[in-house]
Design goal:
413 residues; alpha+beta; Globin-like; Heat Shock Protein 90; 3 domains; 5-stranded mixed β-sheet; two-stranded antiparallel ribbon; 7 strands; 11% strand; elongated
Length: 413
């Protein structure tokens, strides 16, 4: 039986309008035959349930105010049909336990209606709380309408159907939120990639102006200002580069690696010189095996080592030297960056290579927290992985903090 038409007004309905709509829908549901299952009830009263979904979806401001009725109804009917199909399928105790943990397999290899719904709601501007509220309202509507229509109240079959129904709704919520989160991450990463890319042109102009100011023969004070402009622009350029590398990996492209025969000693010296330029007061000890060579991307490896050395400067004991060693075996090269200081807590070691994670420098060295993006160690590990290698960390009071990069000597095609 189809629900009676309910006019919800031009704008989003208020609480009283929603209650009135719900009453009309409830009166449109006939009393059920005793043997009717919940899956049959959902299919026979689909329109009434969807109309109540629509009435609630219209309250999701501000996103709903610019959406058509068709867009608000979205995948309500396919989601309900999927739930009904799930209720009709046989289920073992093990399958029920898996579903309760969110491990259930979908009934189709294609993307589910719930997943598509989550993606479309993200694009429409719904927040995650509003997405969850839709499912809470759907769950409450179906249960209320079904209980009202049952002549014999609650029995064992009713309880069993309720358990299965709640499991199916929970599965739909999991699929919707997972897809919503994926779409949100994709839009964020795409925005960051575009932003970082577009910032490079004005930054290049700033660096060029600084270079011209330095070479123009102006006063000594102006030349010092020009040097500072170039230094700041260089730091900004490194941040933009890190953002671009991060978004490349997030968008599934990875950091491009172009290996060629290289001197590992020369790469270590170049990375060290780059860091020493900005940290002239820090002491570094370098020890590289003679003649050590490998097929690596020299620019990427230099970038990774610079990140590791800068991390050691930031978090290490200023009174102790930072160590950089490189050795080799018959098949691998092993590069270590070591600093003394307060050891990294075990819980931080679990996430230290995650993107946008920053250890508190204040807790380690007493310095003010860094303003960097927390991408240096993430990118260093991505460089190691791009060379089919590894980057690991160990930290304890006796040995300090040691980052160990192990790369194969042969990285060619």
């Amino acid at each position: 039986m189809r629900a009676a038409a309910v006019r919800l007004g031009a704008g989003a309905p208020g609480r009283e309008e929603r209650r009135a709509a719900a009453l009309v829908l409830e009166h449109s549901i006939p009393t059920l035959p005793t043997a009717m299952t919940l899956s049959s009830f959902i299919k026979e009263n689909m329109e009434a349930i969807v109309e109540e979904w629509l009435a609630f979806a219209k309250t999701m401001e501000p996103a709903a105010t610019t959406m058509s009725v068709l867009a608000l109804r979205d995948h309500a009917k396919p989601i309900l049909l999927a739930i009904a199909k799930d209720l009709e399928s046989s289920q073992t105790a093990a399958a029920q336990a898996d579903k309760a943990k969110g491990w259930a397999e979908t009934l189709s290899t294609r993307e589910t209606a719930a997943a598509t719904h989550g993606a479309l709601r993200q694009v429409a501007g719904f927040d995650l709380n509003q997405l969850g509220a839709e499912y809470r309202a759907l769950r409450a509507s179906v249960i209320r309408l079904w209980m009202k229509a049952r002549p014999d109240g609650i029995d064992a079959d009713f309880v069993d159907d309720m358990i299965r129904f709640n499991e199916a709704v929970d599965q739909a919520v999991a699929e919707s939120t997972s897809r919503y989160a994926a779409e949100l991450a994709l839009s964020r990463d795409t925005f960051m990639a575009i932003l970082a890319h577009d910032l490079r042109s004005p930054l290049s102009a700033i660096r060029m102006i600084g270079h011209l100011m330095e070479k123009s023969g102006a006063t000594e004070a102006a030349r010092k200002q020009a040097v500072q402009i170039q230094r700041s622009a260089k730091e900004m350029g490194e941040m933009i580069r890190d953002l671009l590398e991060y978004t490349r990996t997030r968008l599934g492209k990875g950091i491009p690696i172009h290996p060629a025969p290289c001197s590992i000693g020369m790469i270590c010296q170049e990375a060290l010189a780059e860091v020493q330029t900005g940290q002239p007061s820090r002491q570094f000890d370098i020890d590289v095996a003679d003649g050590l060579a490998a097929e690596v991307d020299s620019g990427r490896l230099r970038q990774a080592l610079s990140n590791l050395l800068n991390n050691a400067v930031q978090h290490g004991d200023p009174a102790s030297p930072i160590g950089l060693t490189a050795t080799g075996t018959s098949s691998d090269i092993v590069i270590e960056v070591k600093n003394q200081g307060k050891p990294i807590p075990a819980e931080s070691l679990q996430v230290i290579f995650d993107p946008l994670v920053q250890l508190s420098a204040q807790s380690v060295t007493g310095k003010e927290p860094s303003t960097n993006l927390g991408l240096g160690l993430f990118i260093a590990r991505e460089v190691a992985l791009g060379h089919h290698g590894t980057l690991e960390v160990a930290s304890d009071p006796e040995n300090g903090t040691v980052f160990t990069m192990r790369l194969p000597k042969q990285n060619g095609p």
